[in-house]
Design brief:
The chain is built from 6 helices and 11 strands. The protein is an alpha/beta fold. The chain has 2 domains: 115 residues, 2-Layer Sandwich (Nucleotidyltransferase, domain 5), CATH 3.30.420.40; 90 residues, 2-Layer Sandwich (Nucleotidyltransferase, domain 5), CATH 3.30.420. It starts with a strand and ends with a helix.
């Protein structure tokens, strides 16, 4: 079934919007600058205008739910909910790590396993391992986690690496069995990949009422205490 889906994400320093319509994707993206909420709504208007569609012609919303920056995750979920409530639409939830894994696999790499990694600040990374899946696009092979770079392990070898966690912590490139293609360490989540996975979730009946949309934070604090900062400095 062909759907007109609007996908959006603001969980990281890169925010983007994509319109999936009749198998084609129109996308807009931007790095940090203005508030993500202003950028998202402006890009929504742009992609709809490019295809000559109105909001009322959409069939569903695909929301990026994190993990990522706390404020960015909240904006991403809130904007998706606001649009969906206003239009009476349902929502498909996709994580930033899933979208990164989809990006890696969409490049037709011969390796069916991916580890996606984002910089979580505070000397930590968000990471998760995935495998290609014919029905779902990507399938998690373990729980998404947050932790020190030294806690990262591959669930299968070889695995493709993708995400800016690898740029923030270059030592991760030495993980046994890791393949890090050119440019992969600079990759950010893209709305087109959220749209692709969201379309599969709508087909599988995995969409939800917007009231059920939940952000994924993975940790419950955004900064170290003075004592924690001092302790970390003492071992550097």
């Amino acid at each position: 079934m062909s759907r007109r889906l609007l996908a959006l994400d603001a969980a990281t320093e890169s925010c983007s919007v994509a319109l999936l319509c009749d198998g084609e994707v129109v996308e807009r993206g931007a790095e940090s600058g203005k508030a993500h909420s202003q950028q998202l709504l402006g890009m929504v208007a742009q992609v709809l205008a490019e295809r000559g569609l109105s909001m009322q012609e959409l069939d569903g919303i695909v929301a990026g739910i994190g993990p990522g920056a706390f404020t960015g995750v909240r904006i991403s979920v809130a904007v998706a909910q606001g649009l969906a409530f206003g239009l009476g639409l349902r929502v498909a939830a996709v994580s930033t790590l899933e979208a990164l894994a989809q990006q890696a696999l969409a490049q037709q790499a011969p390796v069916p396993h991916v580890i996606a990694c984002l910089d979580a600040r505070m000397n930590e990374v968000y990471w998760g391992c995935f495998a290609a899946d014919a029905r779902q696009g990507v399938r998690a092979t373990g729980a998404a986690r947050v932790g020190a770079p030294g806690s990262v392990v591959l669930s299968a070898t070889p695995s493709l690496g993708i995400g800016r966690g690898f740029a923030a912590y270059p030592d991760l490139a030495a993980l046994p069995g890791l393949m890090l293609p050119a440019g992969a360490a600079a990759a950010a989540p893209r709305a087109r990949d959220f749209a692709a996975l969201g379309a599969l979730r709508f087909e599988l009946g995995l969409d939800v009422d917007p009231a059920e949309l939940q952000p994924t934070y993975l940790r419950d604090k955004v900064a170290l205490t003075e004592a924690e900062r001092a302790a970390r400095q003492s071992v550097i």
